Amino acid sequence: MTGIRIQTAAATLRTIAADPRHLGARIGLTLVLHTWGSALTHHPHVHGIVPGGGLSPDGQRWVGCRPGFFLPVRVLSRLFRRRFLEALAAAHRHGALRCLGDHAALADPGAFARWLAPLRRREWVVYAKRPFAGPQAVLAYLARYTHRVAIANSRLLALDERGVTFRWKDYRATGKTRHRAMTLATGEFMRRFLLHTLPPGFHRIRHYGLIANTARRANLAQARALLHAPGATAPPTEASAATTTHTESPPPTWVCSGCGAAMVVIEILPRRPHIRAPPPQRGAP
To answer: Does residue 100 sit in the same domain as residue 218?
Structure first.
């Protein structure tokens, strides 16, 4: 269902943005999946980074949104609701949606259809506004989650006969009482942690539209040229590419993860052989 959520969000934004009655442009977006809350509860949601505009259908001009307004949230919510519920029903019909535990009764098609019916009439909320602290703050926030597991070692406080104790933040509280300690039985702690282990091959970060992997370089170069952004350069020709091949040094093999500078190998330490038996004791024959 998480894949359905991501794909439906991307399709909804691209469809409404391409409509001439709204923006009339091809947009790009990056979606990042985040599945956990501070207490390791299952809270799947998707963060999105969407530029405030896009390329015109012919690719000859940049179409910017109105100041303080990107796309109508009511239109976005209605289209997302319809497409998401349709995809959910299709997944259930083809056996791709499993109903277990307290929801095992929803495996019946009739029961599932009755469960979906009130969701089609309920209003779905879409919130779309410019980030308060600017785009840099959004990028810095999402960068902390792209390759992180559900809990860092720094939050672990104790492991004893009671279970695992860790720090968590209660967002409903205010002031210093937000930061609290929670102790879970070892089995419950592992259950919550494993909830956030993604299936093999599942992509947590996905790019759509202008920044999709297939045509990202050409689309971004076109957008920078139309916006007269710094760093907008013409694509290299064959002659210039041949020249730079002989003059530029090859990229470094190892790069520092902290500062990004190239690392120089000073010495390679050979691996020591494993000790396969304890050393003989004194006086032993």
So the answer is: yes
What range defines the domain where residue 220 resides?
2-151+199-227
Are the CB atoms for 148 and 154 separated by under 8 Å? no
**CA 161/CA 163 separation, integer angstroms:** 6
Token couple for 226: 């139309």
- When divided into structural domains, the chain yields a total of 2
Of 72, 52, 56, the closest CA to residue 131 belongs to 52
Q: What is the pLDDT of residues 15-37, one digit of tens each?
A: 999 999 999 999 999 998 888 88
Distance, CA of 148 to CA of 170 (rounded, Å): 20
Strands 28-36 and 205-209 come out as: antiparallel
Q: How many other CB atoms are there within 10 angstroms of residue 141's CB atom?
A: 13
What's the pLDDT band for 100 if we cut at 50, 70, 90? Answer: confident
Structure tokens at 141: 């926030």
**Whether residue 102 is found in the same domain as residue 166:** no
CA gap 151, 189 in Å, rounded: 11
Quick one: 36 and 142 in the same domain?
A: yes
Q: Are 80 and 9 in contact, with CB atoms under 8 Å apart?
A: yes
Q: Is the dihedral of CA 238, 241, 243, 245 positive or negative?
A: negative
pLDDT digits (tens, 9 = 90+) for 70-90: 999 999 999 999 999 999 999
53 bridge partner residues: 64
Residues 119, 58, single domain; the answer is yes
Distance CA 267, CA 223 (A): 46
Phi, psi of 33 (to 5 degrees): -80, 135
How far is CA 116 from its chain centroid? 27
